[in-house]
Specification:
The chain is of the alpha/beta class. The protein contains seven helices and 17 strands.
Protein backbone atom coordinates (compact mmCIF):
# COMPACT_ATOMS: atom_id res chain seq x y z
CA UNK A 1 0.00 0.00 0.00
CA UNK A 2 1.37 3.47 -0.85
CA UNK A 3 2.76 5.60 1.93
CA UNK A 4 0.59 8.19 3.59
CA UNK A 5 0.48 11.59 2.00
CA UNK A 6 2.83 13.14 4.58
CA UNK A 7 5.65 12.38 2.13
CA UNK A 8 3.85 14.18 -0.74
CA UNK A 9 2.19 17.34 0.65
CA UNK A 10 1.96 18.80 -2.86
CA UNK A 11 -0.42 15.98 -3.82
CA UNK A 12 -3.48 16.39 -1.61
CA UNK A 13 -5.86 14.01 -3.38
CA UNK A 14 -6.02 10.28 -2.83
CA UNK A 15 -7.45 8.27 -5.73
CA UNK A 16 -8.78 4.77 -5.10
CA UNK A 17 -10.28 2.15 -7.39
CA UNK A 18 -11.43 -1.42 -7.08
CA UNK A 19 -14.24 -3.85 -7.72
CA UNK A 20 -15.89 -6.94 -6.32
CA UNK A 21 -18.22 -9.49 -7.86
CA UNK A 22 -20.73 -10.13 -5.10
CA UNK A 23 -24.51 -10.58 -5.02
CA UNK A 24 -26.15 -7.24 -4.24
CA UNK A 25 -29.85 -6.66 -3.56
CA UNK A 26 -32.04 -3.62 -2.94
CA UNK A 27 -29.95 -1.55 -5.32
CA UNK A 28 -32.14 1.56 -5.06
CA UNK A 29 -31.63 1.73 -1.29
CA UNK A 30 -27.91 0.97 -1.58
CA UNK A 31 -27.52 3.66 -4.22
CA UNK A 32 -29.17 6.33 -2.06
CA UNK A 33 -27.30 5.36 1.12
CA UNK A 34 -23.96 5.20 -0.66
CA UNK A 35 -24.41 8.48 -2.52
CA UNK A 36 -25.47 10.28 0.66
CA UNK A 37 -22.55 8.95 2.69
CA UNK A 38 -19.90 9.66 0.08
CA UNK A 39 -21.17 13.14 -0.71
CA UNK A 40 -21.19 13.98 3.00
CA UNK A 41 -17.62 12.70 3.23
CA UNK A 42 -16.55 14.97 0.37
CA UNK A 43 -15.75 12.26 -2.16
CA UNK A 44 -15.95 12.66 -5.92
CA UNK A 45 -16.06 9.79 -8.37
CA UNK A 46 -18.18 7.18 -10.06
CA UNK A 47 -19.47 3.96 -8.55
CA UNK A 48 -21.35 1.37 -10.57
CA UNK A 49 -23.53 -1.15 -8.75
CA UNK A 50 -25.39 -4.10 -10.19
CA UNK A 51 -26.79 -7.38 -8.98
CA UNK A 52 -23.39 -8.88 -9.84
CA UNK A 53 -21.30 -6.47 -7.74
CA UNK A 54 -19.62 -3.07 -7.44
CA UNK A 55 -17.04 -1.06 -9.41
CA UNK A 56 -15.48 1.88 -7.52
CA UNK A 57 -13.43 4.92 -8.56
CA UNK A 58 -13.11 7.78 -6.05
CA UNK A 59 -10.95 10.85 -5.51
CA UNK A 60 -10.84 12.94 -2.34
CA UNK A 61 -8.74 13.91 0.66
CA UNK A 62 -7.22 11.14 2.72
CA UNK A 63 -9.77 11.79 5.46
CA UNK A 64 -12.70 11.59 3.04
CA UNK A 65 -11.44 8.34 1.55
CA UNK A 66 -11.14 6.94 5.08
CA UNK A 67 -14.83 7.74 5.61
CA UNK A 68 -15.69 6.06 2.30
CA UNK A 69 -13.81 2.94 3.37
CA UNK A 70 -15.66 2.97 6.68
CA UNK A 71 -18.96 3.00 4.79
CA UNK A 72 -17.90 0.00 2.70
CA UNK A 73 -16.74 -1.82 5.84
CA UNK A 74 -20.16 -1.32 7.42
CA UNK A 75 -21.72 -3.53 4.72
CA UNK A 76 -20.63 -7.16 5.08
CA UNK A 77 -20.94 -7.62 1.32
CA UNK A 78 -18.34 -4.91 0.73
CA UNK A 79 -16.15 -5.31 3.81
CA UNK A 80 -12.48 -5.75 2.95
CA UNK A 81 -12.92 -4.30 -0.54
CA UNK A 82 -9.44 -3.95 -2.02
CA UNK A 83 -8.91 -0.40 -3.27
CA UNK A 84 -5.71 0.45 -5.15
CA UNK A 85 -4.31 3.88 -4.28
CA UNK A 86 -2.46 6.75 -5.94
CA UNK A 87 -1.97 10.45 -5.16
CA UNK A 88 -2.53 13.42 -7.46
CA UNK A 89 -2.31 17.19 -7.57
CA UNK A 90 -5.85 17.46 -8.93
CA UNK A 91 -9.07 15.83 -7.82
CA UNK A 92 -9.63 13.20 -10.49
CA UNK A 93 -13.43 13.67 -10.62
CA UNK A 94 -15.69 16.71 -10.39
CA UNK A 95 -18.93 14.98 -9.36
CA UNK A 96 -20.07 12.11 -7.16
CA UNK A 97 -22.20 9.53 -8.98
CA UNK A 98 -23.58 6.16 -7.94
CA UNK A 99 -25.20 4.44 -10.89
CA UNK A 100 -27.25 1.26 -11.14
CA UNK A 101 -26.31 -0.80 -14.18
CA UNK A 102 -27.12 -4.27 -15.53
CA UNK A 103 -23.38 -5.06 -15.26
CA UNK A 104 -20.47 -3.38 -13.47
CA UNK A 105 -18.43 -3.51 -16.65
CA UNK A 106 -20.28 -3.29 -19.95
CA UNK A 107 -20.16 -6.59 -21.80
CA UNK A 108 -22.31 -8.48 -24.27
CA UNK A 109 -23.05 -12.18 -23.94
CA UNK A 110 -24.03 -12.69 -20.34
CA UNK A 111 -21.74 -15.66 -19.64
CA UNK A 112 -20.28 -14.09 -16.52
CA UNK A 113 -23.34 -12.25 -15.23
CA UNK A 114 -24.19 -12.92 -11.63
CA UNK A 115 -21.79 -13.46 -8.76
CA UNK A 116 -22.79 -17.05 -8.10
CA UNK A 117 -21.07 -19.75 -10.11
CA UNK A 118 -19.02 -17.29 -12.12
CA UNK A 119 -16.09 -18.65 -14.07
CA UNK A 120 -12.93 -16.83 -13.05
CA UNK A 121 -9.43 -17.21 -14.44
CA UNK A 122 -6.71 -18.02 -11.92
CA UNK A 123 -4.69 -14.94 -11.03
CA UNK A 124 -0.95 -14.57 -10.79
CA UNK A 125 0.74 -11.95 -8.64
CA UNK A 126 2.89 -9.19 -10.09
CA UNK A 127 5.83 -10.97 -8.41
CA UNK A 128 5.14 -14.15 -10.36
CA UNK A 129 4.67 -12.25 -13.60
CA UNK A 130 7.97 -10.43 -13.11
CA UNK A 131 9.72 -13.75 -12.57
CA UNK A 132 8.22 -15.13 -15.77
CA UNK A 133 9.24 -12.03 -17.72
CA UNK A 134 12.75 -11.92 -16.24
CA UNK A 135 13.23 -15.61 -17.05
CA UNK A 136 11.96 -15.17 -20.61
CA UNK A 137 9.33 -17.85 -20.08
CA UNK A 138 7.30 -18.77 -23.18
CA UNK A 139 3.85 -17.29 -22.59
CA UNK A 140 1.56 -14.62 -24.02
CA UNK A 141 0.64 -11.28 -22.45
CA UNK A 142 -2.79 -10.25 -23.75
CA UNK A 143 -3.97 -6.65 -23.42
CA UNK A 144 -7.77 -6.74 -22.99
CA UNK A 145 -8.22 -2.95 -23.08
CA UNK A 146 -9.61 -0.76 -25.84
CA UNK A 147 -7.28 0.42 -28.60
CA UNK A 148 -7.30 4.06 -27.45
CA UNK A 149 -6.09 2.96 -24.01
CA UNK A 150 -3.29 0.87 -25.47
CA UNK A 151 -2.01 3.89 -27.41
CA UNK A 152 -0.94 5.43 -24.09
CA UNK A 153 1.18 2.42 -23.13
CA UNK A 154 1.28 -1.34 -22.59
CA UNK A 155 3.56 -4.17 -21.54
CA UNK A 156 6.54 -4.77 -23.80
CA UNK A 157 5.72 -7.48 -26.37
CA UNK A 158 2.06 -7.71 -25.29
CA UNK A 159 -0.47 -8.86 -27.88
CA UNK A 160 -3.03 -6.33 -29.04
CA UNK A 161 -6.07 -7.91 -30.73
CA UNK A 162 -7.36 -4.59 -32.11
CA UNK A 163 -10.23 -4.24 -29.67
CA UNK A 164 -12.14 -1.01 -30.28
CA UNK A 165 -14.81 -1.64 -27.64
CA UNK A 166 -14.55 -4.18 -24.84
CA UNK A 167 -18.15 -5.31 -25.34
CA UNK A 168 -16.92 -6.94 -28.60
CA UNK A 169 -14.27 -9.05 -26.87
CA UNK A 170 -15.93 -12.48 -27.43
CA UNK A 171 -16.00 -12.18 -31.23
CA UNK A 172 -12.64 -10.38 -31.50
CA UNK A 173 -10.91 -13.00 -29.33
CA UNK A 174 -12.44 -15.83 -31.34
CA UNK A 175 -11.18 -14.26 -34.57
CA UNK A 176 -7.72 -13.71 -33.07
CA UNK A 177 -7.51 -17.41 -32.22
CA UNK A 178 -8.80 -18.48 -35.63
CA UNK A 179 -6.24 -16.29 -37.40
CA UNK A 180 -3.38 -17.54 -35.27
CA UNK A 181 -2.67 -14.14 -33.75
CA UNK A 182 -3.59 -15.48 -30.32
CA UNK A 183 -2.06 -18.94 -29.71
CA UNK A 184 -3.96 -21.58 -27.77
CA UNK A 185 -1.03 -23.81 -26.82
CA UNK A 186 0.76 -21.34 -24.52
CA UNK A 187 -0.23 -19.83 -21.18
CA UNK A 188 -2.08 -16.53 -21.75
CA UNK A 189 -1.83 -13.85 -19.06
CA UNK A 190 -4.52 -11.20 -19.49
CA UNK A 191 -4.31 -7.69 -18.11
CA UNK A 192 -6.34 -4.49 -17.92
CA UNK A 193 -6.21 -1.39 -15.73
CA UNK A 194 -7.59 -2.91 -12.54
CA UNK A 195 -8.53 -6.51 -13.36
CA UNK A 196 -12.29 -6.38 -13.83
CA UNK A 197 -12.28 -6.78 -17.60
CA UNK A 198 -9.98 -9.79 -17.37
CA UNK A 199 -12.49 -11.57 -15.14
CA UNK A 200 -15.16 -10.98 -17.76
CA UNK A 201 -12.90 -12.04 -20.63
CA UNK A 202 -11.45 -15.27 -19.24
CA UNK A 203 -14.37 -17.64 -19.96
CA UNK A 204 -14.49 -16.49 -23.58
CA UNK A 205 -10.80 -17.20 -24.06
CA UNK A 206 -11.37 -20.70 -22.69
CA UNK A 207 -14.30 -21.18 -25.06
CA UNK A 208 -12.13 -19.98 -27.94
CA UNK A 209 -9.68 -22.80 -27.23
CA UNK A 210 -7.02 -21.19 -25.03
CA UNK A 211 -5.99 -23.98 -22.67
CA UNK A 212 -4.32 -21.98 -19.89
CA UNK A 213 -5.63 -18.52 -18.94
CA UNK A 214 -4.48 -16.25 -16.09
CA UNK A 215 -5.02 -12.65 -15.06
CA UNK A 216 -2.67 -10.26 -13.25
CA UNK A 217 -3.83 -9.80 -9.69
CA UNK A 218 -4.87 -6.14 -9.38
CA UNK A 219 -4.12 -5.35 -13.02
CA UNK A 220 -1.77 -2.69 -14.33
CA UNK A 221 -2.21 -0.44 -11.29
CA UNK A 222 -0.97 -3.17 -8.97
CA UNK A 223 1.98 -3.82 -11.27
CA UNK A 224 2.86 -0.11 -11.26
CA UNK A 225 2.64 0.01 -7.48
CA UNK A 226 5.20 -2.76 -7.16
CA UNK A 227 7.43 -2.53 -10.24
CA UNK A 228 6.81 0.80 -11.94
CA UNK A 229 8.05 0.90 -15.53
CA UNK A 230 9.76 -2.49 -15.56
CA UNK A 231 8.75 -4.42 -18.69
CA UNK A 232 6.36 -1.57 -19.56
CA UNK A 233 6.39 0.89 -22.48
CA UNK A 234 4.76 4.30 -22.05
CA UNK A 235 2.10 5.32 -19.53
CA UNK A 236 -1.41 4.14 -18.61
CA UNK A 237 -4.80 5.52 -19.66
CA UNK A 238 -7.25 5.97 -16.77
CA UNK A 239 -10.97 6.76 -16.74
CA UNK A 240 -10.87 10.00 -14.78
CA UNK A 241 -9.78 13.60 -15.23
CA UNK A 242 -6.09 12.67 -15.04
CA UNK A 243 -6.55 10.80 -18.35
CA UNK A 244 -3.04 9.29 -18.23
CA UNK A 245 -0.76 8.34 -15.35
CA UNK A 246 2.88 7.31 -15.34
CA UNK A 247 4.23 3.97 -14.08
CA UNK A 248 5.08 5.90 -10.90
CA UNK A 249 1.31 6.52 -10.49
CA UNK A 250 1.65 10.26 -11.08
CA UNK A 251 -0.45 12.38 -13.42
CA UNK A 252 0.90 13.52 -16.78
CA UNK A 253 -1.39 16.56 -17.29
CA UNK A 254 -2.55 15.03 -20.55
CA UNK A 255 -5.73 16.14 -22.30
CA UNK A 256 -8.25 13.83 -23.92
CA UNK A 257 -9.55 14.22 -27.46
CA UNK A 258 -13.32 13.84 -27.32
CA UNK A 259 -13.52 12.62 -30.92
CA UNK A 260 -11.08 9.70 -30.86
CA UNK A 261 -10.50 9.18 -27.09
CA UNK A 262 -6.74 9.54 -27.58
CA UNK A 263 -4.84 11.12 -24.70
CA UNK A 264 -2.36 13.80 -25.77
CA UNK A 265 0.39 15.72 -23.99
CA UNK A 266 -0.29 19.36 -23.18
CA UNK A 267 0.35 21.50 -26.22
CA UNK A 268 0.12 18.53 -28.58
CA UNK A 269 -2.56 18.56 -31.26
CA UNK A 270 -4.56 15.41 -31.91
CA UNK A 271 -4.04 13.73 -35.28
CA UNK A 272 -7.82 13.50 -35.78
CA UNK A 273 -7.86 17.34 -35.69
CA UNK A 274 -10.84 17.60 -33.31
CA UNK A 275 -8.81 19.54 -30.78
CA UNK A 276 -11.48 19.26 -28.07
CA UNK A 277 -10.81 18.61 -24.40
CA UNK A 278 -12.98 16.14 -22.53
CA UNK A 279 -13.23 14.13 -19.33
CA UNK A 280 -13.67 10.37 -19.55
CA UNK A 281 -15.95 8.39 -17.27
CA UNK A 282 -16.06 4.77 -16.18
CA UNK A 283 -17.62 2.62 -18.88
Amino acid sequence: MPALNSDSPEKPFLNVSGYRFVALENLDTLQLDMLTALKEAGCMGTILIAEEGINVALSASEEAIAQAKAFFESDERLAGLWLKESWSEIQAFTKMKVRIRPEIITFDGGKTQGSEGRQKAPSITPETLKTWLDEGRDFVLLDTRNDYEIRSGTFSNAIDIDLVNFRDFPSIAKNAVASGKLPTDKPVVTFCTGGIRCEKAAPYLTDAGVKEVYQIDGGILNWFEQYGAEHWDGNCFVFDDRHVITPELTETHAWLCRKCNTARAQGEDCSCQSGENSAAEIV
